[in-house]
Amino acid sequence: MIACTFYSSFAIHSLRLVPAQYIQSRRQLLKIFSLSVIFCFSVVCGNASLKYIPVSFNQAIGATTPFFTAIFAFVITCKKEAPIVYFSLLPVVLGIVIASNSEPLFHLFGFILCVGSTAGRALKSVVQGLLLTSDSEKLNSMNLLMYMAPMAAAVLLPFSLYIEGNVAGITIRKAKEDWFIVFLLVGNATVAYLVNLTNFLVTKHTSALTLQVLGNAKAAVAAVVSVLIFRNPVTAMGMVGFGVTVMGVVLYTQAKRRSKLTAH
After folding, report:
1. What's any one GO cellular component for it (predicted)?
2. Is the pLDDT of residue 102 over 60?
3. Where are the beta strands (DSSP E) in 161-235?
4. pLDDT at 35 over 60
């Protein structure tokens, strides 16, 4: 988050890639802070859930994000999609569930954390969509990230230091032993910035629901790339599941296009 603040500030104020925008009202500031808190909540719950439930079960629950997004978009913005769009979400979700072929070990607290993370991720995409496209409070992606990131860092840092103990001291000691970890941390922060920036751009130019559908497609692409690069074994059921997800994404794209044509 600190890296996101630095990179965005440098791109806006030094490189002038996009014009600088300023927070216009207390209401807009509150929305940005809410976005930061929702983001932190989603990430922390998602990571913590992995302590209690298998990754496969985590993925299966996470696949329901498009449904949560559609619900939040309707409740918050009263945006209603065509029935065919909602129907096309079924294979997107079903595919990831099929691909999670290991028998999940149910743990109630882990399940609650994962559902909370999934709902938080959906709510975040809807709120950021409002901030990126609202006529009265519109911010471009880079400016929104510049304002949101330091707020998220301020929320996460005290919890990190309290829960993880002497994490700063351990990081410094490891850096003295091997400077390569500094390169890994900087590289990780840079990629995280690009992920967050493109996340905002996709939301701005498409919709919050499209972002979450693409997120499920990303899982399928990651699996295929993993097989090609690492030659790791994959089950036939897993391939069927990811194939269904990709089919669902194609159906969703076609359904969105048809609904737009019908609207015009």
Report:
1. membrane
2. no
3. none
4. yes
